[in-house]
Amino acid sequence: MTKSLILSQLTKTYAGxxxxxxxxxxxxxxxxVALLGHNGxxxxxxxxxxxxxxxxxxGQIEVLGAxxxxxxxRAHVAYLPENVAFHPALSGLEQIRHFLRLRGLPASGAIxxxxxVGLADAAKRRIGxxxxxxxxRIGLAQALIGQPRLLVLDEPTSGLDxxxxxxxxxxxxxxxxxxxxxxxxxxxxxxxxxxxxxxxILSQGxxxxxxxxxDLRRAANLSVTLHVIPxxxxxxxxxxxxxxxxxxxxxxxxxxxxxxxxxxxxxxxALKDLVADIEITPPSLEDIYSHYSRRDGQ
Length: 298
Ligand SMILES: Nc1ncnc2c1ncn2[C@@H]1O[C@H](COP(=O)(O)OP(=O)(O)OP(=O)(O)O)[C@@H](O)[C@H]1O
Prior knowledge:
By secondary structure, the protein is an alpha/beta fold. The protein has 11 helices and 13 strands.
């Protein structure tokens, strides 16, 4: 399948300070990819290069089979910047009509776009009276103009409440199901874990990990937490049988490596007269993210 976005060996330096180093990344049609990274990791720089807003030093980049910023690429790429700013005196409807006219499209499509982002009722109110989440949704309506085939979204859910976030991801699911490729940056690890297909972790301008969450979890080989809840009165015997753990208020806590997980679990199951229950907690995305960021000297 032809990829919607291909970056290879992409390098960018600002006045001697490297912002992207040898970055390789591909996004396929219908794929939702989350770009994660600490402040200053290079996420916005990568997005601006994809949009053709700033030049890069070396490497290759193909956006929908064309050069970034070329007419061919721009016709089908949508961008939602981190801080969207609109004219406060215009209503939502006037603003979207204006964007449609700029793209040479009929202004009559504005109300449908506003309805898709849940702003139909507020369409005639001035943007100056909108909440931050509503302004973000105007930005999203603007990004949906012209049925884009690649969406580049810089922290699109920052400032949105939980219900608006869920609605936003539902909208993205529909776009991806129709074949749009989506690249979004975020610091909200839990939500991207659930709502995207692949994670790319940038650290100091380098891609330090990419894959599905299970891929990253396996590669990071972080420990799994086991919480063993003793039968009433069996706390002492359980602690003696599993000296590698430590007792806390509700049970015995053990951190085990992936390799030790099954042997330790069978050791615990053999103690069934002492054990009431076991809870197994795999490493979270936060743990995995810190692991890769630390590995790169953070
Ligand atoms: N115009 C610029 N001139 C000089 N340095 C810049 C410029 N823009 C970005 N940088 C530097 O490039 C690096 C990458 O910045 P970038 O904004 O791409 O990071 P980011 O991952 O988007 O960060 P954040 O999560 O804070 O938005 C940082 O060290 C930043 O200081």
